[in-house]
Design goal:
mainly alpha, single chain
Length: 186
């Protein structure tokens, strides 16, 4: 490939991949956080929002994935079409079809919306669930690890656990005045 096309074949698909990943990542994060906020979900049901957000983000980023695949499929002897050219061609194909049903099926086929979309949704939801569980486990065990390290003198003991909290001086003045008043009354 290097002898036939130089660096060009190795950069085919780079720009649409960046577009796809930015669109997917932004859409996924926005949608999952909106789901959690809107439905006030508890942690055991967040996987539903993650699954839906990932599936929708996959559909939204699908046109850039199409451009990426077209560029990957370009021979090293040819210049790959730009992302804009691929998307313009898809638009022309869809507009040429007579019915909405045919248009939808064509878009669904070209963007590969279907089982792959659900696979991404399930994979992202499962991955996020495993990450959250590992993070919770780590947080629970971090305190145990710190206590062992303190006992082994690997890290210095924390001063905050040895020092008692300070009391606000204003509170003490009020208490002292109350005591003085009660003494005067006697």
């Amino acid at each position: 490939m290097w002898t036939k096309g130089g660096l060009r074949p190795f950069t085919n698909g780079l720009i649409p991949t960046i577009y796809r990943d930015v669109v997917f990542g932004g859409s996924y994060t926005f949608l999952r956080l909106e789901y959690q906020h809107y439905f006030q979900t508890t942690p055991q049901y967040q996987w539903l929002g993650n699954l839906g957000a990932a599936a929708i983000a996959t559909i939204i980023s699908g046109p850039f994935n199409l451009a990426r695949n077209v560029q990957y499929g370009t021979s090293s002897l040819q210049t790959a079409p730009t992302t804009k050219e691929v998307l313009r061609e898809l638009w022309k194909e869809v507009r040429a079809l007579p019915s909405w049903n045919q248009k939808w099926h064509h878009v669904q086929n070209r963007l590969r919306i279907g089982w792959g979309t659900m696979r991404v949704g399930v994979g992202m939801a499962l991955g996020h669930y495993v990450y959250d569980e590992c993070f919770l486990w780590y947080q629970g065990h971090t305190k145990d690890i710190e206590r062992v390290e303190e006992r082994l003198h690997l890290i210095p003991a924390r001063r905050s656990t040895l020092v008692t909290p300070l009391v606000n001086d204003d509170d003490n003045d009020d208490d002292d005045n109350d005591d003085d008043d009660s003494k005067e009354e006697q």
